[in-house]
From TrEMBL:
EC supergroup of this enzyme: transferase
Protein family: Belongs to the CobS family.
Location, primary (coarse class): membrane
Taxonomic superkingdom: Bacteria
Name of the protein in question: Adenosylcobinamide-GDP ribazoletransferase
Cellular compartments per GO CC: plasma membrane
The organism's taxonomic lineage, starting at the top: Bacteria, Pseudomonadati, Bacteroidota, Bacteroidia, Bacteroidales
Coiled-coil regions, chain positions: none
Function according to Swiss-Prot or TrEMBL: Joins adenosylcobinamide-GDP and alpha-ribazole to generate adenosylcobalamin (Ado-cobalamin). Also synthesizes adenosylcobalamin 5'-phosphate from adenosylcobinamide-GDP and alpha-ribazole 5'-phosphate.
Pathway connected to this protein: Cofactor biosynthesis; adenosylcobalamin biosynthesis; adenosylcobalamin from cob(II)yrinate a,c-diamide: step 7/7
Enzyme Commission code(s) on record: 2.7.8.26
Organism (species): Hoylesella saccharolytica F0055
Amino acid sequence: MRISINTSKWYSGFWAALLFFTRLPFWRIYQPPKEAYQSVVEYWPLTGWLTAAVMAGIIYFGSMVLPFPIALILAWLARLLLTGALHEDGLVDFFDGVGGGGNNRQRILDIMKDSHMGTFGLLALIVYAGLLFSTLYMLDPFYAALAVLAADPFSKMIAAQVTQLLPYARTEEQSKAHNLYRRFTVGAGISLFAQGTLPMLPLVLTYLSIPQLSLRWDLLIFIPCLVMFALYMLMARRLRGYTGDCCGAVFLLVELSFYLTMSALVYTPV
């Protein structure tokens, strides 16, 4: 099998992903063509390298001069500013729709498109933030930083699979971005896998280099995948498809399951 890579499409898709998933003014450097936005999900984990590096840097270096909880809050705030709370907005809309729409597909989609925050969305955001801070706080700042470096791109790689397993739940004109993601090619799939797994190497090598430390890597990988599958089944049954809000929610919940699993594996009761 021959795998060819079109460098111009890769270049345009990468910049489109940076523009789509962050709020940084990359448009000053390059303006990708409209069709490049159909492939942004193929570079989603790569944008996670940026957000993860910023978060990890603030957690590790910030904890040297500030209390650890404050460093964690500042790290999350930095990601919110970098992404414009894109994924958190998806989490709120997703839970508002699923929680308030019952089994009525159209009602769920209508609620998700409503810009107002409902009770289910607010509760989901509060619980998510509480668990995020609690799980990272249970880790040493160094290991919390390594966990963030690994979890952000890895979880985006896992969440991206939803776009391949389900059809889009709306039409292109009804989507917020007026854009539909394309199907992955073999080359795109390999690239996505590399983007999502390479940032895990520092965490893996650190644990392997210290004989006293051990981690169930099978659980650390399997449980986030299981969470993604459960959310996929929920969307398939209630929505018969996915939306951009669904993608954001899946990413955050898969990432949170990574932190929950890691904190549970390393927690030692006093």
